[in-house]
Model the fold of this input.
Amino acid sequence: MTENGYPRPRRRTVLLAAAGSAGIAALASACARPEENRAAATGPAGPTPSCVLVTSASPGPYYSGPGKLRSDITEGQAGVPLRLDLTVVGVKSGCRPLSGATVDVWQADAQGEYSTGRATHLRGTQVTDADGRCVIRTIVPGWYAGLAPHIHFKVRPDSRNETTSVFYLPEEVLRQVYARQPYARRKAPKDPNGRDDRYRSAGAGMTLTLAPDGSGYRAAYTVGIA
Done:
């Protein structure tokens, strides 16, 4: 199966970072509960996140390289606000927060279309602080091409390494959002996520837990990279 002409992303093996039986046991314990990867700290004094690798995915056809260095990537695009509080940690270093890592984010707008050419809306880059944290302000993405709605991201801890993946959103929230304008200009699919077999195989660990935040939503997520 392809997504607009590119291959289906491959799942990433989780237990590749341990050294010795004790390390394997510790990582196995963390990975036995993948939902913990959704619970990042929301403040400077929050708990240390679990050592769980994110599931890798293809960048797709719309990645255009690092974007503008900014937290708010909306550029006035209409849609339900979504704030992402991300924490980047190194699995091999025992969940040590990674400062100075660049995080690229890009996604479709409310009508399921990406910015192309010289347009830069709904794409941008942030750099993690000393605690490995950064904030992205965007909107809930629309749907397209029979795929589960998603937000692409790429983490580059240095100039030689990178990890690419996608965030999904809870289907019950998508149904509510897609009944609102400007999403309601199109008839929403009955099951926005269920029609995508990649979501069924890998979506559980990469689905954001959303909390109401003003007129929109907020989510925290720990991005574990090797």
User: Anything to note?
Assistant: The chain is about 15% helix and 25% strand. The domain at 2-225 is CATH 2.60.130.10 (Protocatechuate 3,4-Dioxygenase, subunit A). The two ends are 27 Å apart (CA to CA). The mean pLDDT is 82.
